[in-house]
Automatic annotation (TrEMBL):
It holds the Pfam family AP_endonuc_2. Keywords: Isomerase. This is Sugar phosphate isomerase/epimerase. Residues 27-246 form the Xylose isomerase-like TIM barrel domain. It comes from Kribbella sindirgiensis. InterPro entries: IolE/XylAMocC-like (IPR050312), Xyl_isomerase-like_sf (IPR036237), Xyl_isomerase-like_TIM-brl (IPR013022). GO terms for molecular function: isomerase activity.
Length: 258
């Protein structure tokens, strides 16, 4: 199976597109998810002017933008359409109003965005996230139920493991919505008398990446794989290169049946 090996470029969010493209290409990647946030090189306010130039610089270095991590404002949709970026990735946050009310609020936001997904032909990807977000794959699928096909699941290995789920179950259930597969890993570390999440390399955490690729093989899925470059400690580039090698090797052990 040929995957588009991609990386979330948050660790280098201040770099212009040409420098970023050279850096991540040198690490072995051919795709990128770009943060479009107030703290990044491209912000939501500047996206319509800057994102087309930024993505053109990435493509000149052999890097295809697979998504942006941003908000659902019309200016971000318009920038993605102009730049040829197919997806905006978000998470569904939980407020002080409680889980049920927060889910209703997030659903209303997604329903309001449906007209923008159609107008600009840009998808919305929702990722589960541990903590004050809809944290499970199944919770995200429930949130998306009944929405148009442009609303996708961004499946995440670490957060799936933190939710106590297994890729053989959640990837199959989410197959019809699957837009991006995120790879990172995590375990719990006891610090100052409390258990905290500690993001680690591929072979050190709760998620079994080999099981992820076995499930993807069964689904015959060939979309982008995004390593999120999230580590609680240590040099990002060295860890990321090792994780990419491990992911490529794991994928090769579960080749396509085609």
């Amino acid at each position: 199976m040929m995957y588009l090996w991609s990386v979330f470029t948050k660790p280098w969010l201040g770099l212009p597109g040409d420098e970023l493209g050279r850096l991540i290409s040198g690490l072995g990647f051919a795709g990128a998810e770009v943060p479009v946030r107030d703290t990044a090189y491209v912000t939501p306010a500047s996206a319509e002017a800057e994102l087309p130039k930024f993505t053109a610089q990435l493509r000149a270095e052999g890097i295809e933008p697979i998504s942006v991590a941003s908000d659902l404002s019309e200016q971000v949709f318009a920038a993605c359409a102009e730049s040829g970026v197919p997806m905006i990735r978000i998470m569904a946050d939980l407020g002080l109003d409680g889980y049920a009310a927060s889910v209703r609020r997030n659903r209303e936001l997604l329903e309001d965005a449906a007209v923008l997904t159609e107008r600009y032909d840009v998808q919305v990807g929702v990722q589960p996230h541990h903590g004050r977000y809809v944290s499970s794959t199944l919770g995200v699928l429930q949130l998306l139920d009944g929405l148009p096909d442009r609303f996708k699941l961004v499946w995440d290995a670490a957060h799936d493991a933190l939710a106590g789920d297994h890729p053989a179950v959640t990837l199959e259930l989410g197959a019809d919505r699957l837009g991006i597969v995120n790879l990172k890993n995590v375990h719990y570390l006891r610090t100052d008398g409390a258990w905290k999440t500690n993001f680690v390399e591929a072979e050190e955490g709760l998620s079994d990446w080999s099981a992820v690729f076995a499930a993807l093989r069964q689904l015959q899925w060939s979309g982008p794989i995004c390593l999120t470059a999230q580590y609680s400690a240590g040099p990002v580039e060295e860890r990321l290169e090792r994780d990419l090698r491990f992911a490529v090797t794991s994928a090769a052990q579960h080749p396509s049946r085609e």
